[in-house]
Write a structure and sequence with these properties.
This protein is α/β, with parallel strands linked by helices. 25% of the residues lie in helices and 19% in strands. The longest helix is centred in the N-terminal third of the chain and has 13 residues, at 54-66.
Amino acid sequence: MGPLAVTQLLLALISLTVALDNGLMKTPPMGWMAWERFRCNVDCKDDPENCISEGLFRDMADRLAEDGWKELGYEYVIIDDCWMSRLRDEQGRLQPEPSRFPGGIAKLARYIHDRGLKLGIYADMGNYTCMGFPGTTLDKIEIDAQTFASWEVNYSLLGDICHLWRNYNDIQDSWDSVQGIIEWFSNNQDDLQPAAGPGRWNDPDMLIIGNFGLSLDQARAQMAVWAIMAAPLIMSNDLRNLDNSARAILQNKAVIAINQDPMGIQGRRLLQEKSHIEVYWRPLVHSASALVFLSRRTDMPYLYHTSLAKLNYDAGNYEAYDVFTGSTMKGLNTTTELTLSINPSGVVMWYIYPEQRYKEATETLRQQHMKASFTFHKAEPEHHTVL
C-alpha cells in the first residue's frame, strides 16, 4: 500500500449507490480493518489463523458482535487488499481467491450481516491493486460495481462520491508513525478542517491500539487525538487476543462520544509549547468542548501550567470531566490556574462544559453515543491540580 495512495478508496468506505448528501456517515464510521495488522499474509498453509481468508473475517465479525464492540458503534468489517484471485473469471468479474475464500464473498457478507454488521471491500482504480492483484480499469468500473452489489457488499471504492478520504501515508505500528500523522494533520489543519463535517471526513488511517508498537500512554494518545480530529475509528488489530488495557481504551465511551459528536466539527491544535506540550481543542454540542494535552516529551511526567483564558475560553464557570480517570473538576473559571501532570508521549483529555449546561452536557455523553453510560465523580471545587 503506497504512500498517499489516492486509490485506497476502500479505506474511505465509499457508498455503492448513493452520493455525499445521502444522510450516511453523519458521524465518523467505526469498525475493523485487516490491513495494518494482517497486511497481505496469504500463507494459509503455515499461518491459517492469520492469513487473509474468510476465516479471519468471520472471527473478527464474531468478536465485534459478541464482545461489546457493535453496541459502541464499531459496525464495519473491511476486507483490504489481497482477497482477490490473480485472474478475473470468464465474464471478466473480480473473484475471491478460492483457496482462501471457498464460500465466496456473498456468503461471507451474509455471515457478517447476520451479526448486525456491515461489510466493506477493497478494490483499486488502475491496472493493479497496491499488492499486484487485478485493479479496476475504466472499462471495468460498471461490472465491478455490479459484482459488489450482487454480493451485498455495503461499501466499496466504486461509489459516486467519497464520504471520507485518506490524506497521508499509511500508518505503521509505531509511535513515530502516529506522531508523523498528527504532525502532518496539525500543520495542514487550516486546509483540512473546513473539508470535514457530517458525511465527509478526513481519515488519518487506522487505530493500531492493541498491536505491538505503542505503549499504554501512546495508545491513549492516538485514541484521544483521533477523537479530536473527528477521524474514522477503524481498528486494525487482532480482536481475538486483545489485552484489557487496549480494550478499555478502544471501548472508552466518553472518547467515542466525543468522536461521534453530531456537530461533526474537526478539532485543531491550539498550542505548541517550547516544553514540547501540545494542546488540541474540538467544539462540541451544547457549548461543550474537548481538550487534549499531548506530551511530545521522552523524559518524565511533566507539570503543565495553563488556564482556560490562555486557551481562548469565554469568561464563565466551567466543569471538566477527565475521560481516562473518570474524575470531574468543578468550579473552574477562565482565570483558574490549572496544573496537569502529563506522562511522556501521553495525554490528558478533558470533556469541558459551562457549569450552567451541566445537565445537557452530561446527558449528551450518556445518550449521544448509543448505549454509553457514565458516572461523574465530583471533585471538590478547590482541587485544580491533576496529578
